[in-house]
Amino acid sequence: MSILKINLHARLLLHRNRHQPKLRPEFQYLTSRQRIFKHSPSYARPLFSLSKNVRVVQVSAAIPFSIDKEESEDFEDYLAEDGEVYQKTLRLVECAMFAAVSALAFILSNSLAIEKYFACFFALPIVLSTMRWGIAAGRKTMVATGVLLFILSGPVKAMTYLLLHGFLGFAMGTLWRLKANWSTSVFFCTIVRSTGALANVIIASYLIGENILGLITINVHALVTNVLSSMGIIAVPSMNLIYSIFGFLLLLNCGFFVFLLHLLYAIFFKRLGYKASLRLPKWLEAAI
After folding, report:
1. Chain center to CA of 204
2. pLDDT (tens digit per residue) in 184-239
3. How many CA atoms lie within 13 Å of 173's alpha carbon, on the beta-carbon side?
4. How far apart are CA 239 and CA 118, in angstroms?
């Protein structure tokens, strides 16, 4: 009886295998892998751990979003118009632009031989930078202009600019920034201008190999002699008198030039809205 049951069971299995639809090899491969994943706990564990790691990464990636937002808010505060970073950047940019304008104007005026007509504007960028951003900014503008001229035109043009216009603009801007009165400002600026002009003459004499200062004193001596002879005074002036006359004429020339610069720059700054920062004489305040 048992043998008969075994035979019937074997026939039923054979009948099922015959009438069951056959799958393609790739589907058989997939079903086999599904069975493996279904019945093998060793493959199920890594999938669970991987999903767990993915959740951790998502949470950790969402945390820095608030930190970046706070940093962006701080960055916007730094770049605000009243922020320290914005003000420092603006000061640096303006100093660089003032230096570039001064160097370009000086080079073009020398190349076109129109320096005499635009010499009064060469010190203006340094004075403007000093009035806007302080004494340190004016010094940086002067140094940057000298460096640009040294690179573009050589050391001679750079020294000429610094001696005749650079130090004058820095001294004027510093005195105006400190709100010194006009008599003090004109006096010190005249000393700076005359010293720079004398130093420029000495340097030029050394470079060309001629004593320009000696030629100037000889011409002054001849002029004084002719004036005395025309007045009926027969006398030979001494060299000390010649040097004194030469120094007086130099100071007089530089004084008039500095005074005209004070008038011109006062009107210019008043138009720009810096009248409150200037200490002008009463007659000039009434005039402008």
Report:
1. 32
2. 999 999 999 999 999 999 999 998 888 888 888 888 888 888 888 888 887 788 88
3. 26
4. 35
